[in-house]
């Protein structure tokens, strides 16, 4: 049990490190809060919550892995190296794919509801 608590402590240390050092992660967290607020305000359905949660998790997880691999790359290759560049670029590509998935998911779920809201208000 003590070991489990310690592991959670390390995991939160990693989350804190990423939050304090990575602007992109903070932006993703802000987007998470915005999406959750919109979800509550627009009363989205259970299956829509699942899609939004999946999109949020994918973006945050890829950003965490990206930060981890970036840090490791800097440790292994502090000077310029073409392969180190590729490693970082590929990781950044994974984050972009996740972010695009989140964008499409958000648009598909929120846009029709927002359009309806605007129509009703007009
Ligand atoms: N050691 C290196 N050798 C070759 N190219 C590198 C190296 N370090 C970085 N690069 C190139 O510069 C780009 C940006 O690297 P950097 O480490 O600044 O990532 P970043 O996404 O800006 O990180 P951060 O999220 O910390 O701002 C990489 O994607 C890669 O193309």
From TrEMBL:
GO MF term list: ATP binding; kinase activity; metal ion binding
Active site: 63
Transmembrane segments: 23-43, 49-69, 90-111
Any one GO biological process: phospholipid biosynthetic process
Coiled coil region boundaries: none
GO CC annotations on file: plasma membrane
The protein's name in its UniProt record: Undecaprenol kinase/diacylglycerol kinase (ATP)
Provenance organism: Mucilaginibacter pineti
